[in-house]
Design a protein that fits this description.
alpha/beta; Rossmann fold; seven-stranded mixed sheet; binds alpha-D-tagatopyranose
Length: about 325
């Protein structure tokens, strides 16, 4: 509810400043979008939303990222983007700490910085505290809440008892850390459920599939798994299938690429929590444009979720949240 108010006020401010002739006469900016990685359906969908907003206001959007989700490959891309000097950078930092110093260089060059999807530091910006509050805004899902939703869904799917674990990317990623935290917090309310150690897969679905089979070998009574992002979820689901656990081991997925949707239809995955990446991209551009026009903008813009399962997967109102390829 709180987030809805923020979004609406952002929209209101934007449309007030950009209606009719004022829009035509408005300034046009160059905005760079640096995703977590370029080949992930989540960021591909985010790019489409960002492009839609850029087209509306006449801005130029440049999408430039690394081939994997890793600060070691993302930082050189960011350096190259800074060298081209866009007016603003929208970035999904791949590490809460390791992107702080590289992003300071953008601010020093006079480039406005907004983080999308992931954050640096604590994610609370413009507070005057800490060394990572300098981005102007954070546009993202509520990942703690997403983790809680996942835990409630998995608890229900396994009849509130049994062993589960989180298949996750790696520590230090703000989004997936928060999903795991929300998941574990919620599971404290389900005393019949044992949460086993998290397995980290480095965003590699094959590794996640192998880990699922190892966990199942050690725990033949494994009841469920939460795949905390797209690759974790695809990998966990494949692991369940390869290990002969289909139907017995329940899978709750974060993210909604077409592969996961197919696995919902086949019954391998119970449900997916779809983020709204196109909205994240759209409002990222809206916020950057408004800031470049000299407006104050909300420091936090939250986007929602759509829970997809077998009962609603063919509903067009739900299917529109399936990610693009
Ligand atoms: O889950 C998304 C994103 O929110 C997260 O920060 C990283 O992984 C994804 O891109 C999915 O692969």
């Amino acid at each position: 509810m709180q987030y809805t108010v923020v979004i609406l006020s952002a929209l209101a401010a934007f449309s007030l400043a950009n209606t009719g002739p004022a829009q035509a006469a408005g300034k046009h900016y160059t905005i760079a979008l640096v995703p977590g990685l370029t080949t992930d359906a989540f960021y591909i969908t985010m790019r489409k939303g960002a492009q839609a907003a850029a087209d509306t206001v006449g801005d130029t959007l440049n999408f430039q990222g690394a081939p994997d989700f890793n600060p070691v490959t993302q930082v050189p891309v960011l350096d190259a983007v800074i060298a081209r000097h866009p007016d603003a950078i929208l970035i999904a930092p791949t590490d809460k700490v390791q992107l702080v110093e590289p992003l300071k260089k953008a601010v020093a060059a006079g480039i406005k910085v907004i983080t999308v999807d992931t954050f640096i530091g604590t994610g609370r910006y413009q507070t005057g505290t800490g060394n990572a509050d300098f981005p102007l805004a954070y546009v993202a899902s509520d990942n703690l809440l997403g983790g809680q939703i996942a835990a409630r869904a998995l608890a229900k799917a396994i009849g509130d008892k049994g062993k589960v674990y989180v298949s996750n990317v790696k520590p230090g990623v703000s989004t997936t850390d928060q999903r795991e935290e929300g998941f574990k917090d919620e599971m404290k309310l389900h005393p019949g459920i044992t949460v086993l150690d998290t397995q980290f897969n480095d965003d590699d679905a094959n590794k996640a599939a192998g880990q699922l089979q190892s966990v199942m070998a050690r725990n033949p009574d494994l009841a469920g798994v939460f795949g905390a992002n797209l690759f974790s979820a695809i990998g966990a689901a494949n692991g369940v299938k390869q290990g002969g656990g289909s139907g017995r081991v329940k899978v709750v997925a974060f993210d909604a690429p077409t592969t996961i949707v197919g696995q919902i239809k086949s019954g391998l995955v119970d449900l997916a929590i779809a983020q709204h990446p196109a909205e994240i991209g759209y409002f990222g551009v809206v916020a950057a444009h408004a800031a470049l026009d000299g407006n104050s903008i909300p420091t936090s813009i939250g986007t929602g979720f759509t829970v997809i399962d077998k009962s609603n997967v063919d509903d067009p109102a739900v299917a529109r949240f399936i990610y693009s390829n």
